[in-house]
Amino acid sequence: MRKKENSILGTAKESFARILESEQMGDIEVSVRVIPLTPEEAIGDPNRRDFPIIVGKERVIEAEIRQSKGQAFTDSPRPYRGTLRDVMDLELRTNEERAVFIASLNATLGHLGLIQGTVHCKDEDPEQCALDIAETVEKRFAANSVGLIGLNPAIAERLIDRFGASNVRLTDLSRDNVGRERWGVEVWDGATRMKDLVKDVDVVLFTGTTLVNDTFDDIWGEIQSQGKAYLVYGITAAGVCFLLDFERICPCGRDG
Fold first, then answer.
1. Are 41 and 155 members of one domain?
2. I need a surface site. Which of 40, 151, 162, 195 has the fewest CB within 10 A?
3. Residue-wise pLDDT tens digits, 19-47
4. What is the pTM of this model?
5. CA separation for the pair 70, 33 (Å, rounded)
6. Which phi and psi (to 5°) does residue 45 adopt?
């Protein structure tokens, strides 16, 4: 069973195929090496230790194409070697396949100079990223409330600092987070309360990792249905946001 052609990722895959054809890369045997990175390799040594990648809930995989690197977050990391043609043959049915495709997409578009910020920031940058995102959401949208889908602890804390606990909604899929209170805000179950979050806030901020875990389409559909402002955050969505003209924010992402 192939990925539905009218899905977000399916549409991005079609656009990517056209770029590969126009750049005459389809017939070139390009080596794709995807490896799971350790937390230290991916995020360095930030002061806080509660990022999902550090506590072992997620990993970053990295694709390298002609010395250009692209990354993606996933809960199902695996090594992969092949060509871009092999990557395009992936059916995108699993988190593993989607992560390999997205990391490879990011590396390729970075190599072509079409996107930037395909590699995760490190050390103190994640904290600065969170501050920048909170400020941008408030100023750009004149927002009074914001919802965060995908619990990035640094971003969540800075949003709550700026907007107040009563004006922030949080959802996550991890059983370790759902039902817990973080900085005065209960973390809702993203599987059942995503629509409540979108309804309650002015702006929805959601992680590009939703492309890997196959929840992006439902979130996007609800945002569109309710006419809400949004931003996709992080490195994972770099390529897809470029191809499909989605609004993305990644203040401290690094070029690969």
1. no
2. 40
3. 998 887 755 545 566 766 565 654 455 45
4. 0.88
5. 10
6. -130, 75
Query: How many residues would you count in the chain?
Result: 256
Which residues span the domain enclosing 243?
A: 125-249
Helix (H) or strand (E) holding 197: helix 190-200
Give the CATH number for residue 204: 3.40.50.11590
Helix (H) or strand (E) segment spanning residue 136:
helix 125-141
pLDDT category, 4, cuts 50, 70, 90?
very low
Confidence of residue 59 (pLDDT cuts 50, 70, 90): confident
Distance between CA atoms of residues 142 and 13, nearest Å: 34
First to last CA, the chain: 33
- Residue 150 is assigned to a structural domain of this protein: yes
- Show the beta-strand stretches assigned E in the chain: 32-37, 59-65, 68-74, 80-82, 146-149, 168-172, 181-182, 185-189, 203-207, 229-233, 248-249
